[in-house]
Amino acid sequence: MTGSQGKEILQEGLAAMGITLDSQAQERLVTYCAELLRWSAKINLVARAELREIWETHFLDSLSLLRVLPPPENTQQPLLDIGTGAGFPGLALKAARPELPVILVEPRQKRVSFLRHVIRTLGLKDIEVLCGRLEKNSAKVDDQTLAVPIITSRAFTNLGEFLLHAGAVNPMGGRVICMKGPRSGEEISAWRLAQPESPYRLQEIIELTLPFSGKVRNLVIFSKEGP
User: Closest Cα partner for 158 from 112, 189, 125?
Assistant: First the structure.
């Protein structure tokens, strides 16, 4: 991938999604993608695919969360990305919005090494990578106790399980943003049946389509309000 190829694909996708990023943010994302491809030749970071599919599936899909994050002037509180893998969505969002505090949780050491390499390469500050897993009813990861008002994940587990894992680290009044496909309604119904006393309330579902394939994505947003 040349820088111009990556930038053209990124700009096409951003325009289709109605997202505006400055040139520095775009350059960071292009550099991130180049490092992802380079490292993927040695370790398993993402599935092999055409370049446009990689941009859409990983980067542009992650950037869809920009529409539901606090505005730049109100970003003192961090975003927690559980099971971030190669940095999606958390590191992609940080590259786009460098003022956003971010915590990435990832249990696989090779991926943690990749994430830390990209963070250094992009010169990002106020972002932390924790090597470990978030267990149910536990607020500790990598010997740190977490309390984070905005939590997300792209492919951690099903919706109900994710809310159980998020509960201990998400204070009252916090939000959980679940990135789901077109069958999110089934997971919501299963969660309501299995967890009628859940402290979470379904706040909003935002349906969108990815710019190249037209695949449907749903941002399912919960607020923590008590049982």
Answer: 189
